[in-house]
Design a protein that fits this description.
Structural class: mainly alpha
Number of strands: 0
Shape: globular
Largest sheet: none
Strand content: under 5%
Number of domains: 2
CATH topology of the largest domain: Growth Hormone, Chain: A
CATH superfamily of the largest domain: MFS general substrate transporter like domains
Radius of gyration: 23 Å
Number of helices: 20
CATH architecture of the largest domain: Up-down Bundle
CATH class of the largest domain: Mainly Alpha
Length: 500
C-alpha cells in the first residue's frame, strides 16, 4: 500500500490539472482577461490538438529512451517524470490577467504539453510495476482515490476562497497557483516512490551494456527508418481488438467529462441561477467517491469490467435525468427542499461519474498483456501515446464545438443572465452529450471480455511461449481467448525472429 500511495500521488497532478482546466480556466479568462467564450474555448481546443501531436512524439520517444544512455541509466519513464516537475510551474502564467490572446495560447499549450509528458510516462507504470491483476487493481484504486481527493479538494478550497474573498481575479489566483505548486511536489514524490522495468524485462535486452546512443539513432537514414517504424507501431496498436474497444469507451467517456467540466459552472450560474461558489460546493460532492473507491476495486475484481461498465453507464443515465429535473424544478420548489434535492442529485451523479473515471485506468494496465503475445514486447507508452493523441484530438474538436455552439446561442459570460437559447445550449451540451455517450459506451462494453480470468489465461500463455513452449500445444480455451482479445488468428501471435 505504501508503494501504491507513492504511485497514486502522480494523479494528484493528473486529475487536479484536469479539474483546474475544465472548471476554472475558461471562467477566469472570460471574466478577468477580456476573452470571449469562443476565444477561450478555441484556446483550450487548439491546445488539445497540440497535446495530441506531442502525445504521439512522447509515446514513441518514451518507449525508445532505452536507446539512449540517459534512459538506460535513469529509466525511460522516470527520466520523463523528473523533467515534468519544473515545467509544471509554467502553469502559474495562465492566471495573469491583461495578457494578449496569443500569450494565453502559448502558456496554456506549454502547460498541456507538460501534462502530456507526465501522463505518457506515468500511465505506463502500473503494467511495469507488477504483472499481478490484483496488484494492478490496487494501484488503480489508490490512484483513483487520490485523483478524487485532488478533484474534490480543488473546488472545495476554491469555493471557500471565492466565498470568503468574493469573485475577484486574486481569489482565483490564490488557489490556482497554490495547487500548481502542490502538483510539482506530488510528481516529485511519485518519481521517488515508483519503479519500472529494466531494458531486458521490457524486451530491450540487446541494448544492455552499451554506452552512449544506440547506432540506430546516429545515422540520418536510420532516423527516417525509425520514423516509419514509429508510424507502423502506432498503427499496429489498433490491430488489438480489446484495445479498440477500450479506446472507444475511453475517448467517449473523457470527451463527455470534458464537456461536463467545461460547462457545469456556467450551467449552475445561468440555468440554476446560483453563484460560482455554489457550483464549487456541488463539485466538491465528488468526495462521496472516496469511500466508494474500494467498492469500485472490489467490483472490478469480482464482477469484471463488462458488468461494472453496465452498472456504471445505467447509473450515469439516471444521474443525467436527475440533473435535468434539478434544472426544471429550479424556482418552483421551496428553497431548502430544492437545495437538498440538488445536493442529493449531485452526490449520486458524481459517484457514477467517478466510476466512469476509474474504469478505463483499471482496464488499461491489462492492454499491454494482450499486445505482448502479439509483438513479444512491452509497449505501454506506445499505447498510452496513441490513446492520449486520439483523446486530445477528440477533446479539441468537442471543446471548439462547445464554444461555437454557446457563442451561436447568444451566451455571454460577462452578463449576469443568459437568454433561453443559451440555457438550452448549455443543458443540451452538458447533459445531452453525456447521456448519448453513455448509451454508446454501454453498447460497446457489452462485447468487452478482458477481465482477471482472460488476462490470466493470456499471461500464462505468454509465459509458456517465452519459455520455449510450442504454439501447437495451445489448448482450445486459450486459443479462443487469445483470438478474441487480440482480434487475430492464433497463428499470427508470438512471431519468430524478434530481438528480445
Amino acid at each position: 500500500m505504501k508503494d501504491a500511495i507513492g504511485f497514486g500521488m502522480g494523479d494528484f497532478y493528473g486529475s487536479g490539472m484536469m479539474t483546474l482546466n475544465g472548471t476554472y480556466v475558461a471562467l477566469f479568462w472570460t471574466r478577468f482577461c477580456g476573452l470571449s467564450i469562443q476565444s477561450a474555448q478555441s484556446i483550450l481546443g487548439t491546445a488539445a490538438f497540440i497535446s495530441a501531436a506531442s502525445a504521439l512524439f512522447f509515446g514513441s520517444f518514451g518507449d525508445a529512451l532505452f536507446h539512449f544512455s540517459a534512459g538506460r541509466r535513469f529509466g525511460r519513464r522516470h527520466l520523463m517524470m523528473l523533467a515534468t516537475c519544473p515545467l509544471i510551474l509554467t502553469g502559474i502564467l495562465i492566471w495573469i490577467p491583461g495578457l494578449p490572446h496569443w500569450a494565453y495560447m502559448v502558456e496554456f499549450a506549454l502547460w498541456i504539453v507538460t501534462g502530456q509528458i507526465f501522463q505518457t510516462a506515468y500511465n505506463a507504470l502500473p503494467t511495469e510495476m507488477t504483472d499481478d491483476y490484483r496488484g494492478r487493481t490496487k494501484l488503480s484504486t489508490t490512484r483513483t482515490f487520490i485523483a478524487t481527493l485532488s478533484g474534490t479538494a480543488l473546488p472545495l478550497l476554491g469555493g471557500a476562497v471565492l466565498a470568503a474573498r468574493g469573485e475577484k481575479a486574486s481569489s482565483y489566483q490564490i488557489f490556482a497557483i497554490g495547487f500548481t505548486l502542490a502538483f510539482a511536489l506530488a510528481v516529485f514524490y511519485a518519481w521517488r516512490h515508483t519503479w519500472e522495468m529494466s531494458p531486458r524485462q521490457a524486451g530491450y535486452g540487446y541494448l544492455e551494456g552499451q554506452s552512449g546512443h544506440h547506432a540506430f539513432w546516429q545515422h540520418p537514414g536510420l532516423v527516417l527508418a525509425r520514423l516509419a517504424q514509429v508510424c507502423r507501431a502506432y498503427a499496429s496498436t489498433l490491430r488489438i481488438s480489446a484495445f479498440r474497444k477500450h479506446l472507444a469507451i475511453y475517448i467517449l467517456v473523457q470527451t463527455a467529462m470534458d464537456v461536463f467540466g467545461g460547462t457545469f459552472v456556467f450551467f449552475v450560474i445561468y440555468n440554476l441561477g446560483q453563484s460560482s461558489a455554489f457550483a464549487s460546493m456541488l463539485l466538491s460532492c465528488t468526495i462521496v467517491s472516496l469511500p466508494l473507491t474500494p467498492v469500485f476495486a472490489w467490483g472490478l475484481n469480482t464482477l469484471g469490467p463488462r458488468k461494472l461498465y453496465a452498472i456504471d453507464f445505467a447509473g450515469c443515465l439516471v444521474g443525467c435525468a436527475w440533473l435535468c429535473a434539478i434544472w426544471l424544478t429550479a424556482g418552483h420548489l421551496p428553497g431548502p427542499v430544492w437545495t437538498v434535492f440538488t445536493v442529493c442529485g449531485a452526490i449520486f451523479f458524481f459517484a457514477c461519474k467517478s466510476l466512469c473515471g476509474f474504469m478505463p485506468w483499471g482496464v488499461f494496465p491489462l492492454i499491454p498483456d494482450v499486445d505482448q503475445i502479439v509483438t513479444r514486447k512491452r509497449r505501454s507508452a506506445t499505447f498510452g501515446g496513441i490513446q492520449a493523441c486520439l483523446r486530445q484530438c477528440a477533446s479539441g474538436l468537442i471543446t471548439i464545438t462547445v464554444g461555437l455552439i454557446l457563442g451561436w446561442s447568444g451566451f455571454d459570460a460577462t452578463r449576469s443572465s443568459a437568454p433561453r437559447s443559451a440555457q438550452l445550449a448549455l443543458a443540451g451540451m452538458m447533459l445531452g452529450w453525456f447521456a448519448l455517450t453513455m448509451l454508446v459506451c454501454w453498447w460497446i462494453s457489452s462485447s468487452f471480455h478482458l477481465d482477471s480470468r482472460t488476462d490470466g489465461i493470456i499471461t500464462r500463455e505468454t509465459a509458456r511461449l517465452a519459455a520455449g513452449g510450442s504454439k501447437a500445444d495451445v489448448t482450445p480455451e486459450t486459443k479462443a481467448v487469445v483470438e478474441d482479445l487480440t482480434g487475430l488468428p492464433y497463428s499470427q501471435v508470438w512471431p519468430e525472429n524478434v530481438r528480445i
